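Input record, target 12 of the design panel.
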């Protein structure tokens, strides 16, 4: 629960992944429109990020550092927008460092030889590694990964636009129910099934640095 909580120091609350651009350019004006965009983000994350969480989890159980390096390269290829790439790397490193710091005496051997010393890994891969090292159940880890991403983005929306607490919680509740309805079958979470086609979100992320005012980093 602590790992997926909004207070864990990954810095994810600083990133909107293009959502802030949609809001400031008036492509999102209502709670229903927020929910629609977040539904799209959820589907992207299910078909991309969740696969890498699962693959990194399994590679960690097998102590396969070569596979983790391959996953890092594959995920990088799926993040052509600089803003999305940098957000993923920053939050991933913060996650890995934060979990390591929780270990007794800041145990430097917690990750063993699995990861490089810089801990520069994408968030989805880092989450899979951490979940495996902490012996968390795989599919619960995948679901908490996906839901915590939604929580972070709903929080971003409430800071940027007039979205009340009740409205935001209803949005989150409906998205959570949608997440619960997805089948979590292993055969659906294979690298061969990865789909990262989300041009609207990528363009919004690239446009983000041109906004007149910004609360988020991406």
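The sequence produced for target 12 reads:
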């Amino acid at each position: 629960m602590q790992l997926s909580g909004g207070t864990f120091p990954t810095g994810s609350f600083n990133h909107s992944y293009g959502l802030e651009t949609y809001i400031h350019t008036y492509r999102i004006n209502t709670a229903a429109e927020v929910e629609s965009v977040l539904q799209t983000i959820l589907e992207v994350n299910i078909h991309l990020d969740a696969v890498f969480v699962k693959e990194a989890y399994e590679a960690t159980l097998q102590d396969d550092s070569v596979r983790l390096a391959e996953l890092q390269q594959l995920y990088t290829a799926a993040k052509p927008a600089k803003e999305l790439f940098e957000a993923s790397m920053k939050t991933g490193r913060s996650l890995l460092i934060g979990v390591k710091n929780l270990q007794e005496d800041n145990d430097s051997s917690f990750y063993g030889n699995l990861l490089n010393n810089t801990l520069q890994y994408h968030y989805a891969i880092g989450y899979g590694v951490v979940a495996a090292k902490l012996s968390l159940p795989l599919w619960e880890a995948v679901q908490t990964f996906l839901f915590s991403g939604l929580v972070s983005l709903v929080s971003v929306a409430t800071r940027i636009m007039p979205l009340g607490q009740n409205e935001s919680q209803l949005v989150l509740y409906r998205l959570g129910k949608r997440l619960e309805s997805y089948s979590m079958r292993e055969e659906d979470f294979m690298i061969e099934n990865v789909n990262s086609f989300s041009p609207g979100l990528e363009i919004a992320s690239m446009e983000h640095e041109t906004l007149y005012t910004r609360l988020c980093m991406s």
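The two ends are 26 Å apart (CA to CA).
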